[in-house]
Design a protein that fits this description.
The protein has helices spanning 38-45, 115-127, 143-155, 167-175, 189-196, 212-221, 243-249, 261-276, 295-304, and strands spanning 2-8, 11-16, 26-35, 55-56, 60-68, 80-84, 93-97, 101-103, 135-139, 159-164, 180-183, 202-207, 222-230, 252-255, 288-291, 312-315. By secondary structure, the protein is of the alpha/beta class. The protein has 2 domains: 2-114 and 282-315, Medium-chain alcohol dehydrogenases, catalytic domain (Quinone Oxidoreductase, Chain A, domain 1); 120-255, Rossmann fold (3-Layer(aba) Sandwich). Helix 2 (115-127) packs across helix 3, helix 2 (115-127) crosses helix 8 (261-276) and helix 5 runs parallel beside helix 6. The N and C termini lie close together (12 Å). The model has no long low-confidence stretch (mean pLDDT 97).
């Protein structure tokens, strides 16, 4: 089968390898879609990244059950699923424990049902502590920000202030129902949030970029005894924080990422239910599609972010 592995910066190769056989309690999934994650982009773009062995990667996977391992009984061959995996989803097939698969309705498009990022965003919204009536400031409205914006509304936020600097992200925020959109390329985002909240700051500020500037703005934009949610995936070096401001404001700071597979799966199940009930939308967040043979072009596109870019998906 064909599978992609990263060898070094800017070097992803599509190889011919043996098709995996599902072990007892596993299902073999024929991959139909795998989203490109910014955490993978960090490896691809980092000139200091090194690996002695090729890394088979890709974890935002949906597809069709192709084979059952001994004792696997939750699914049948032909069932549509999205999965949690760390075993290399940029491949024609991937095997995972059957407990790591979530069933999809017959009409759910595979590219919409990228379970891992959906679950990550729903878990982030759950950990945000948003209460009915809260004013929420969201800094960063890319693919993940677009998901968590919807999660914030479902949690009961009465007012959402969305901040970004890219025209496509600002348009996305409007389309998803943000009450106010702030163009960070034209004005100071934290100052504008303070103006919009009568000088108090937002009840909950969600930083969803993984960048130092957004972390600084989030600190400034949060109200006294507010909540600062670090949802962006911070990579590429250390960050600095204004601990004095955090102390003085008495902020509750939450790093809203999960690493426990069971927590991930809970978020995936929640997100898929919302998606299939038309309470969560994914289609407007997907902008660029690639075949597996063009995976390096997918990474180049994600790194350069051309006009209109939000999310790259590899389809099979």
């Amino acid at each position: 089968m064909k599978a992609a592995a990263i060898y070094g910066p800017g070097d992803v190769r599509v190889l011919d390898i043996d098709r995996p056989a599902p072990e007892p309690g596993e299902v073999l999934v024929e991959v139909k879609a795998c989203g490109l994650c910014s955490s993978e982009l960090g490896m691809w773009a980092d000139p200091a990244f090194k690996t002695e062995e090729p890394i088979f990667f890709g974890h935002e996977v949906s597809g069709v059950v192709a084979e059952l391992g001994e004792g696997a009984s939750r699914f049948a061959v032909g069932d549509r699923v999205t999965i949690f995996t760390d075993r290399g989803g940029y491949a024609e097939y991937v095997a995972v424990p059957e407990a790591w698969a979530v069933r999809l309705d017959a009409g759910t498009p595979f590219d919409w049902a990228l379970g891992e990022p959906i679950g990550c965003a729903m878990n982030g919204a759950a950990r945000s502590g948003i209460e009915v009536g809260d004013t929420v400031a969201l800094i960063g409205v890319g693919f993940m920000g677009g998901l968590i914006l919807q999660g914030a509304r479902l949690k009961g936020a009465s007012r959402i202030i969305a901040v970004d600097a890219r025209p496509e992200s600002l348009a996305l925020a409007r389309a998803l129902g943000a009450d106010v959109v702030v163009d960070a390329s034209k004005e100071d985002a934290a100052r504008r949030i303070l103006e919009l909240t009568g000088g108090e700051g937002a009840d909950v500020v969600i930083e969803a970029t993984g960048k130092q500037g957004a972390l600084d703005a989030a600190t400034d934009a949060a109200r006294i005894r507010g909540r600062l949610i670090i949802f962006g995936y911070h990579q590429g070096g250390k960050r600095t924080i204004d601990v004095q401001a955090w102390n003085w404001k008495g902020l509750d700071v939450v790093n809203a990422h999960e690493r426990d597979p069971q927590a991930y799966l809970k978020g995936i199940r929640t997100g898929i239910k919302l998606l299939e009930a038309s309470q969560l939308t994914v289609a407007p967040l997907l902008s660029h599609y690639f075949e597996l043979k063009d995976i390096n072009a997918a990474f180049r596109t994600a790194a350069s972010k051309p006009d209109g870019f939000l999310k790259a998906v590899v389809t099979f």
